[in-house]
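Q: Two folds, back to back.
A: First:
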Amino acid sequence: MLKTTRFLTPLFCAVWLTVACAVPSAKRTSAPAAPWQPAPAAPAQPVSPTTDVEEKTDPLELPAQAPQADQSSSAHALKIVRVLLADNQSSAEIKHSGRVYIYTQDLEKKYKVSADGTLTVRFAGNGNVQVGTLKSNQPIIIEPAKDTLLTWNNNVYSGKFFVVPAQHTFLLVEHADLETYLYGVLPYEMSYSWPIEALKAQAVAARTYTLKTLEHVKNKYFDLYSDVRSQMYKGGGKQYPSVKEAVDGTKSQVLTFNDKLFYTYYHGNCGGGTDSVSSWNPHAKSIKPLAGAICEYDSHSKSHSWKQEVPMSKIKSYTQKEGLGGNLKSIKVAHKTHTGRATQLLLQTSKGKKTVACNPFRLAMGLKSCKIKEINIHGNHVRFEGRGYGHGVGMCQDGAAGMARSGKKYTQILKNYYPGSTLTTLQ
């Protein structure tokens, strides 16, 4: 459990805040959980050209200590997750709907801004970052008061923002409690309009995956990415009733195997059956919950079957990187799982042939999955036909939705896609 210390210190000086528009949301470039429906952007909070600065006289919690890589996941109830929202930033405009506190990590300088407005954040040179007129070579914290929300890049957040100096830029990291973090994950990994039992299954899987990830933190300033490198996350400030019901209704519930957390992988559509984790990652240890499962409920999705055409020039660029010159002659499935998911492909050109792993190839080509049924060369492009969307390991999200629509409970969904696992309530 993280300890906090309280302080009471009068503030002085003034902060000048400029008003600016938020940066438009970046488009998602890859999606492990498709199809999905993006939540509409929250309306911008009204801002004024300047905001008042008052002397700070009320207590404020110190920033939470950074989680340690070996800390026990059982202390999850008050666990703070540190999410990297952006790196290599030179400037940012952060809107706040009400009172915020701004202070340096060593608490040497502290300010309170009482009205709504926009904070200008920038890299100030010589290893310094600047928020308003507060400049420092150490992280600056922007902490929203109760009921205040922060808006950045058209996404809404309720946690503390840490502006961390980098070499010539800064990192923007949010510190949020675990359950609030999940409010900002579910709508972007599974549509908020989907059946509640599917959303509950997603909440348990996402919570488990997060806590397992926190056991092996590799970065000094953050634990998780806000994109597909961890889980899609766009802030827990905007809460959909269905998502809140799913997260709150499964609070503290995770999946375990042999009394340990495991990586609860999930994907958009399995195309009729999931596979062992080793089919996707040959170096991963195969355990029963990730050994594959039957799926009979995903055929309703348009991702269940697909056809895609890839330009010959794109494939030629790939074969050249693999050391194969000449013109492409054929692509064949060299090895596949019992469900039909290719694990290796044989590429043949006029100057040789080579066997390559399917997953890196499909990511480079933009193919929906490695469950490839047909490959045909047509002039200046290659046509692929297949099934599913994503790596095909763990929970099939379309299948989860189908099971929920057929009347299955989230516990049954989890049992189907993670066989042998135990639903555990952490204390």
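A: Second:
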Amino acid sequence: MHLIVMRHGEAGWHTLDQERELTEAGRRGVAAVAAQIADSPWRPSLIWSSPYVRARQTAAIVAEVLNCPVEEKDFITPDDDPGRCLDELLSNTLSPLMLVSHMPFVGALSTLMVDGHRLGIPFMTSQAVLLDMPVVGPGCADLKAQFLP
């Protein structure tokens, strides 16, 4: 399975974290990364998005560039347990699959898949990584590619 893990684009300020929207710079960064993914051999079949506004906006931009459907998932918000996402990935049959979420979740999930722990690698806004997993499980992935804004 190939999994693309992407952090949302740069977002502005809002009193409610869930309502933060992308800035213009954030939109440009997301579009740049989406174009790189479009030119890669790993175009996703589906995008899973956090329900937070900035992640939904990021997923919408990527979906438009890649002509790909988006599904909101309530288990990939910033402080969710990456183990729950791992459980969902085990029943997923689509590959490549893309996931758009937040820090610290994207870092914790990526580290869990590559190194088997949840310490979390850093992600800049709009950054995406490609994980190659012959088997879905902790420590079973290889980091194959990075897409940077």
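Q: And?
A: The helical segments are 24-38, 53-66, 82-90, 105-115.
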